[in-house]
Amino acid sequence: MFQIEIEPGFSDTDALGHINNTRLPVWFENARKPVFQIFTKTFDFERWPLILAHLSIDFLGQIYFNKMVTITTEIEKIGNSSLTLRQCAWQSEQCVASSSAVMVYFNYESNSSKSIPDDIRKKLLPHLIHKPD
Amino acid sequence: MFQIEIEPGFSDTDALGHINNTRLPVWFENARKPVFQIFTKTFDFERWPLILAHLSIDFLGQIYFNKMVTITTEIEKIGNSSLTLRQCAWQSEQCVASSSAVMVYFNYESNSSKSIPDDIRKKLLPHLIHKPD
Amino acid sequence: MFQIEIEPGFSDTDALGHINNTRLPVWFENARKPVFQIFTKTFDFERWPLILAHLSIDFLGQIYFNKMVTITTEIEKIGNSSLTLRQCAWQSEQCVASSSAVMVYFNYESNSSKSIPDDIRKKLLPHLIHKPD
Amino acid sequence: MFQIEIEPGFSDTDALGHINNTRLPVWFENARKPVFQIFTKTFDFERWPLILAHLSIDFLGQIYFNKMVTITTEIEKIGNSSLTLRQCAWQSEQCVASSSAVMVYFNYESNSSKSIPDDIRKKLLPHLIHKPD
User: Fold this and answer.
1) What is the CATH number of the domain that holds D96?
2) Domain assignment of residue A110, yes or no
3) Is the distance from CB of D98 to CB of D90 less than 8 angstroms?
4) What is the tally of structural domains in chain D?
5) pLDDT in tens, chain D (133 residues)
6) Nearest 5°: phi and psi at D46?
7) Residues of chain C whose C-beta is under 8 A from some C-beta in B?
8) What is C91-112 written as a DSSP string?
9) N or C: which end of chain D has fewer CB within 10 A?
10) B133 lies in a domain?
11) Is residue D84 part of a domain?
12) Which residue in B has a C-alpha nearest to residue A102's C-alpha?
């Protein structure tokens, strides 16, 4: 499981006095960085390894300014060329937003997906929610 | 069907040279404003009528700077106290991102959902994708 | 004078119930696009012509959701390799934020400024606030 | 001197491959939070103590993804009802953006500025760049 800490900024609030829903996709993207790091060490934009194919978020509770937020990231499924991640935003020990993200291992030059190589697959396995038997 | 036009800004791009995925939830939220307007004429923040319970986005194609984007919004389902919307971001006549959003008619003071009243329901009906027989 | 219209989004508001100050630099950047267009027709990121060297903003009034904003852009000064722009955000016929931006004509490859060529200079002149005699 | 650490997010980059200038005002706002904390302990939005009257930024160098940024905040001047702050964004031990911000001690209800009380003034003094003799 990966974990990052976020301090909500004042510009993340909206006129309802809580954090605006559109900030969650940004926080979840930031929290996926350690997964990227398994695919690329250099973060070379010319050889970017993954694209986001799908994102879904369930908003489970209000999120407030002036309280830290923790984002957890786990791998739900490793497919042939794709990854399904499960993420949660936690505040005051409650999961206030849960998210599912599908990322595809991708070759931008040929504009097509690629099989995830075995050496990367091995590094992903420890982060699976349900470990294979 | 509701429709708004968006001109992508330069700060909406990312280092991959296209529009960053986190901008889509913002554009989709802006495109839901006409639906809000059916629930509230005054946009009084103290009596905000809807909360976003769920958002999912399928990213179907890259979105580019310097080309207009159209966001379409239709109602997929009107439940007792919730609405399911179907939205699309179009660029160069292609749906580059499609989205589903569930909004709940909500009373912030009692912190609970409410039944959508008949007069609002009537105004929503013309925007249903599949009209009832 | 260049002019664009902006419809504030709900995520542009903050917990004080007005538009957050950090949105203004985004709107001003978007409003400088027609000036960029004089320097580049293709918006080729590999040959980006200008960098922002300085930005200052005076916040003169509150900006509200659900009212259109107009951004005006004029050229205050054309230097050898730089441009000074004067911009205003208008809402309800009041200038609610005024801004000064200095942009430098720049060669990213050599990492140095360049003299603005005469043909570009000619196209900039009509947008000067104070026309030369 | 106040100090916060920022990890640039991928959505903070733009198509030029560096951090977009419009993110700096957000980071500087976040870095002013400890100054707010001297004026308010509760961060009650109904009794918000300060408004931003002026912001200026000099962009001194490019800012990159995948490297931490430090924002420093010092007080340059304490006026009767206003504060002038000096802020810097540091990356790789270089000040890549310096900023000046004027904040006014403000009563939102009467829509007017107020004198900064002595007890707050005392708590601000240690953060002055140039200490009074």
Assistant:
1) 3.10.129.10
2) yes
3) no
4) 1
5) 999 999 999 999 999 999 999 999 999 999 999 999 999 999 999 999 999 999 999 999 999 999 999 999 999 999 999 999 999 999 999 999 999 999 999 988 888 999 999 999 999 999 999 766 6
6) -75, -20
7) 7, 9-11, 17, 26, 29-30, 33, 43, 45, 65-66
8) ETTEEEEEEEEEEEEEETTTTE
9) C
10) no
11) yes
12) B58
